[in-house]
Design goal:
It contains 11 helices and 8 strands. By secondary structure, the chain is of the alpha+beta class.
Length: about 300
């Protein structure tokens, strides 16, 4: 039966070493549905490593032991492990089937990214079916199934996309504003409405109705930066807009944005943008940007 008419499959990849650059190398990409109780992989007994494995449950139920802890894997749950490693994943008793996508890829060049992902997400994260990671897994499998990964560079791009989506998922709380707690949303709206008046954490916390310690922890978790860093971010974005759209002197912009002196404003602007306000305005140190967006 041809690949185009087979729903499940596993596609392996091997690349010669003459390619230029630090490439991410897939080892195998697949979509499978297992029903055999003998489906059992011991991470310490495998000989195909060193590899990284991402496996995502679509339906049914699987299980994985990582160290001394056993995790049940149902739809929407994934696991991330190193091979070789102290883990064992298998079809547990009582499970009628386990359907999943998986991607195995070489550890070379990916170690730093992978360790950061596992540190932030954990070994057994939950991922919504419509999340970027799962969409990329589906797309990666479709590309493999239809032989669209034609060379090492194209394959490396696909694995890099998967890693970036995993990192994005690790920071998902920072991006899903609808999921922010009320106190975080109130604080963010206060700062966005008037990033000049709210110049210290005590005032922001009081206006948002929370202690400054609770607000600082929650805000950093969900927004991705402390409240006062968010204030600075908005001020610098506004400063960049004024530098490009007005003839105001830098000292006037500094005063409008709540900075105590033009020299301090220049120092902060340089830290965030990489050039002085004057250089930014003239475009001597950076491209002629109409709007500056700052992300952390």
């Amino acid at each position: 039966m041809s690949a185009s008419t087979t729903r499940y499959g596993t596609y392996g990849y091997r690349f010669a070493e003459q390619q230029i650059g630090p490439l991410f190398r897939p080892f195998a990409i697949g979509f499978d549905r297992v029903k055999d109780i003998n489906y059992d992989w011991d991470g310490m007994k495998r000989v195909d490593g060193p590899l990284y494995l991402l496996q995502y449950t679509v339906s049914g139920r699987g299980a994985i032991r990582i160290g001394d802890t056993i995790h049940t894997l149902e739809a929407g749950q994934a696991f991330l492990v190193d091979i070789p490693g102290d883990h064992r994943y298998y079809l547990p008793e009582g499970s009628e089937h386990w359907e999943f996508y998986f991607a195995l890829f070489r550890q070379q060049h990916a170690e730093g990214l992978w360790n950061d992902i596992v540190r932030k997400l954990g070994n057994v994260p939950s991922l919504p079916a419509d999340s970027p990671v799962v969409r990329t897994l589906r797309s990666l499998y479709a590309d493999a199934q239809h032989n669209r990964l034609q060379d090492a560079y194209q394959a490396s791009t696909a694995i890099y996309q998967l890693l970036m989506d995993l990192l994005r998922s690790a920071s998902a709380d920072h991006q899903a504003r609808d999921n922010w707690p009320d106190v975080v949303r109130r604080a963010a709206e206060l700062i966005e409405h008037d990033c000049v008046s709210y110049s210290n954490l005590d005032d922001i916390a009081a206006a948002a109705g929370a202690s400054k310690f609770h607000l600082s922890r929650a805000f950093t978790r969900y927004v991705g930066m402390p409240p006062m860093t968010y204030v600075t971010k908005l001020r610098i974005e506004r400063a960049a807009e004024l530098l490009r759209s007005s003839n105001y002197h830098a000292s006037t912009i500094a005063q409008q944005l709540g900075y105590s002196s033009a020299s301090y404003f220049t120092k902060v602007f340089h830290q965030w943008v990489g050039c002085t306000p004057g250089e930014f305005r003239e475009g001597r140190a950076t491209a002629s940007i109409d709007r500056l967006n700052i992300y952390t």
